[in-house]
């Protein structure tokens, strides 16, 4: 029976792992600090529009606390700026079969990259032979230790999965993807298996362009026009680089067919995305260098510039390092700093 090792049990990893455990699948959540202690002490509290449940889960701090086997599937769901540290931690862990070591995790086990951005897949190939990209659409929030809030109904979220790169797909990959689809579809998610997952991930990247603005400004002014300017710049950069992006119409239709977002009883009225959550928790770092900063990188690599995305990435990076909270800047201040 497949066991899912969720490396990074925050909003996405905790929500995914919690739902899988709730529906009878073998799951190990990898967490740290107060969150790990809460999971080990009282299980995972999973809150959604229709449920408030506490689930017994297996939670560990790292690979030294479990024994890996060929039945394991690793799911990387950290923030992108934390991904390389996690990859190096897990790649060389021995895989045991019938009491003997048969290889390492990097050699033997599939790794799913369930995190934002488009960089983790190529990062993972430095360490893992078999990488499967995951495009995540899941309205989930992790603010308190031991707790994840999921706001999607009737499905908790939607995932596009595929081998990376797509041309590497084997019959074994197809079999594994079909198995994952069965397991995750049956755990209140929807899994789609496109021929190539990366156009979906680039479309999600465009959606994540607004994360930095939401995190920095919060309720402190209307920032829609700023997001539009940054998104337009991002689209121009991707088009100039010849990168294929799933169309807005296809993405919107697919997502609306899967879930809608509803409030969760007893939770704050305002709940933001991943970058907003990082600032709210005072984590000291954010992933926007791999979102807006990714657009800047692609632009520079192709002899162009992306000043709006480069500047907002820098603002978010500095805000996190300084311990600022959502809404510490106004929309007018950010517009001035971006020259808009």
Characterize the structure shown:
With 340 residues, the protein is an alpha/beta fold. The chain has two domains: 3-196, NAD(P)-binding Rossmann-like Domain (Rossmann fold, 3-Layer(aba) Sandwich); 202-338, Orthogonal Bundle (N-(1-d-carboxylethyl)-l-norvaline Dehydrogenase, domain 2), CATH 1.10.1040.10. 42% of the residues lie in helices and 21% in strands. The chain has 14 helices and 16 strands. The chain has helices at residues 11-22, 33-42, 83-91, 105-108, 120-124, 171-185, 198-208, 211-217, 224-240, 248-258, 274-281, 292-301, 307-321, 331-338; strands at residues 3-7, 26-30, 44-47, 52-55, 58-60, 72-76, 94-97, 100-104, 111-114, 131-137, 140-141, 147-150, 152-154, 157-164, 189-192, 259-261. The strands form four sheets. Strands 5-2-1-6-9-10-14-15 form an eight-stranded mixed β-sheet, with helices on both faces. A hairpin with a 4-residue loop joins strand 3 and strand 4 (52-55). Helix 8 packs parallel to helix 11 (274-281) and helix 8 (211-217) packs across helix 13. The model has no long low-confidence stretch (mean pLDDT 96).
Summarize this entry quickly.
This is 2-dehydropantoate 2-reductase. Its EC number is 1.1.1.169. The protein has 340 residues and is an alpha/beta fold.
Residue share in β-strands: 15-25%
The secondary-structure element order is: EHEHEEEEHEEHEHEEEEEHEHHHHEHHHH
Helix content estimate: 40-55%
Q: How is the quaternary structure best described?
A: single chain
Number of domains: 2
The CATH C-level name of the largest domain is Alpha Beta
Uncertain runs are: none
The helix/strand class is alpha/beta
Kindly report the spatial arrangement of strands forming the biggest sheet. 5-2-1-6-9-10-14-15
Mean pLDDT: 96
User: Taking Cα atoms only, what radius of gyration do you get, to the nearest Å?
Assistant: 19 Å
CATH topology type of the largest domain = Rossmann fold
Q: Helix segment count?
A: 14
Give a count of the beta strands, DSSP E runs of length 2 or more.
16
For the record, the CATH architecture of the largest domain stands as: 3-Layer(aba) Sandwich
The CATH superfamily of the largest domain bears the name NAD(P)-binding Rossmann-like Domain
What gross morphology would you assign? Answer: globular
Terminal CA distance: 55 Å
The largest β sheet comes out as: 8 strands, mixed
